[in-house]
Amino acid sequence: MARNTGIEWCDSSWTPWWGCTEVSDGCHKCWARDVTKGGAWAKNPRVRTSPKYWRQPLLWNADAPRFQRKHGHRQRAFGGHICDIFDNQAPDEWRADFFKLIRQTPNLVWQLLTKRPQNILKMLPPDWGDGYPNVWLGISAENQHYFNQRWKILSTIPARIRFISYKPALGPLSLRASSVLPDWIIVGGESGRDPRQMDPQWARDLRDECAACGIPFFMKQMTGKALIPSDLMVREFPAR
Predict the structure, then answer these.
(1) Residues forming beta bridges with residue 78, ordered by sequence position
(2) What does the buried/exposed string (b/e) look like for 103-141 if buried means 16 or more CB atoms within 10 Å of the residue's CB?
(3) Nearest to 60 by CA among 113, 106, 119
(4) Rounded to an integer, what distance in angstroms lies between the CA atom of residue 157 and that of residue 97?
(5) CA-CA distances (angstroms) from residue 183 to 90, 124, 161, 201?
(6) Of 12, 234, 6, whose CA–CA distance to 108 is shortest?
(7) Structural domains of the chain in order of their starting residue, each with its CATH number
């Protein structure tokens, strides 16, 4: 929950509240449950983070010129890594405050990831338009079934970048049936205790599809954070 994070596909991670509810197979061994020692999941409460913590992104935004000079890109912040921004069990006013914070931090790129794309349109702020210029919207999909279900919705929602987090990969996933393609793909096996196995060929096949379609591909990790094979060590970002 700080500027420096172990999540390889972002520069920082930050969450407006803690807590979530399982919605599919990919949730069963959620690492965030371990981070909170189960407290924010025990009876499905949602716990807002502190006012002091909410000021952190404003400090990052003020420091943006130095960050960009050093790293060559705007700071990418994963917003809601220990919650789901489009969770209908979270108070609407918290979400409104979060989008206000996004508007106050135009020098950051906010990466929002959800397993609840059916809620996105009704929860976006009224001035969303074609998408905030500093927000990337993504869905998490652990296999083909959930990709088909969730991407069908996200692909119709305006956003500057729309991406897929294929993690934890629990079955093969192909883009071939999609008439609209995502702007970015993140791939990773499950971590934590007794992780379910990802077949590395699933990642290779998807990497090849992305290369053929010109989609940036980011290989985050193998199952249990095992060593990534050299041919899969591809870590690309969207140019925008």
Answers:
(1) 13, 111
(2) eebebbbbbbbbbbbebbeebbeeebeebbebbbbbbbb
(3) 106
(4) 21
(5) 28, 20, 6, 22
(6) 12
(7) 12-232 (3.20.20)
Q: What is the pTM of this model?
A: 0.93
Beta strand pairing status for 161-166 and 135-140? Answer: parallel
- Which structure tokens are listed for 68? 């960009």
Per-residue pLDDT tens digits of the chain, which is 240 residues long? 456 688 999 999 999 999 988 889 888 877 666 655 555 455 568 999 999 999 999 999 999 999 999 999 999 999 999 999 999 999 999 999 999 999 999 999 999 999 999 999 999 999 999 999 999 999 999 999 999 999 999 999 999 999 999 999 999 999 998 999 999 999 999 987 889 999 999 999 999 999 999 999 999 999 998 999 999 999 999 986
> What are the structure tokens assigned to 180, written together?
């609209």
Q: Which tokens hold the place of 130?
A: 């074609």
Structure tokens at 162: 């729309």
Q: Which of 5, 11, 216 is nearest to 107 (CA)?
A: 11
Q: What is the per-residue DSSP string for 120-158?
A: HHHHS-TT-TT--TTEEEEEE-SSHHHHHHHHHHHTTS-
- 21 DSSP β-pair partners: none
Residue 200 and residue 224: Cα distance in Å, rounded?
13
